[in-house]
Amino acid sequence: MLDRSIASAVRLYRDENVPLLTRDTELSADYDKITGAMTVSIDGKELTLEEAAALLREPDRQRRQDAWEKIYNRWHQDHDRLDELYDEMVQLRDRIAKNAGFSNFRDYTFEAMERFDYTPRDCEKLHQAVEEVVVPLARELVEARKKALGVDKVRPWDMHVDPENRPALKPYNGAKELVAKVIEAMRRIDPEFADYAQEMADREDLDLSSRPGKSGGGYMETFDEVRRPFIFMNEVGTHDDAMTLAHELGHSFHALLARNDPIVEYRHAPLEFSEVASMGSEQFMLSVLDVFYSEEDKKRAVADSFEDIILFLPYCMQVDAFQHWVYLNPEASSAERDNEWHKLGERFGTGVDWSGYEQLEESGWHYKLHIFTMPFYYFEYAVAQLGALQLRENFKNDPDKTIAEYRRGLSLGGSRPLPELFEAAGIKFDFSEDMLRHLIDGLRKELINLGRLPADR
Q1: What pTM did the predictor assign?
Q2: How far apart are alpha carbons 256 and 244 in whole angstroms?
Q3: What does the alpha-carbon distance between residue 394 and residue 237 come to, in Å, rounded to a whole number?
Q4: Is 45 a member of any domain?
Q5: Which domain holds residue 246?
Q6: Burial of 395 (0-12, 13-18, 19+ CB in 10 A)
Q7: d(Cα 304, Cα 166) in Å, to the nearest integer?
Q8: Are 277 and 251 in contact (CB under 8 A)?
Q9: Cβ atoms within 10 A of the Cβ of 366, count?
């Protein structure tokens, strides 16, 4: 494995690309600076966009709309800056690829990201499969939401509120309680996972709360010299935040289980499997949500999570297909990019009505940091989600065996090819239409049982 990685790095290396890659890193930091400075004023308070987004779960529709408009109008204030930034990024990345002997940055990136086990054509096949298998179910969910909310059209600010218009779930109060409850939940999944999380908390290796000037998003970073993970996120008290911490702890468990490998490179798995670790952790967490909720609210939270998966997969394909197009058309203008995003939105869209906000919809790609700072790092989430859903099925049938296999897969780090890592974890590296259809049918049945979808199709 390491020989293969080194050979790839040697093939890609060009002296003339060193300053260009440095500049690319600087431009990514510029995106973080621009977005990290975004705040909105609501009810006399200056809020980060993450804090303001929590209001999109409130039952009052007008209040949701007002918050949504403020958030996305704030994004639009920096529309031209973000377009100019991305123009430079695309041109720079195209030069990097061509300097290395590639015809486009997409093909260069597949090599740079060591995607040895699948091709751009495989990505396109999953785009098509999601369009055929998942998009119709996603549209059913949006239609069911419309009926449940009693509205004529589902608008963007209607997508995060409870379909029955109940108040937002409140799983915890403050970062300290979040950590305590997640550790309690993890102890019921695997006591050692709880010990790992407690150790991170004791070492203050958790930066969880949102604050002005803090960049958005959430991630886990490993400090290789001390072999310790660190979690960064922006919690504001929502169910999503509890699941985000479970997600990032999955990455942390991966780092901790693989940290004893003497070869540093083998402590880090390919992204497709790294995200199985994190998304698998989320699936396990769904089984112990009674730590946070009553039985009724637990069912609601599980339904929310399954619905989120169904709605995420088409969006993930839109993000990936957009980047394929961008880097195969590096001379495209900003307007052409917006038009392509809109066309892909029609292909993968779920029936949400953006009337009156067309400009905000067309520049919707601005809102996804991966497009700017981690090009092509998004498809992995779809591959990993299918792996995590397999873990969910296994966990329902045999929890102890599933956790043992999960641990075994994580302990291998990046020392094996992707198919072998998946196999070690008791699942298949398979994102075919057949596998997708099997897993999505399982989610459909769960959503019917949970009352989120009607029984008749």
Answers
A1: 0.91
A2: 18
A3: 30
A4: no
A5: 105-457
A6: buried
A7: 13
A8: yes
A9: 26
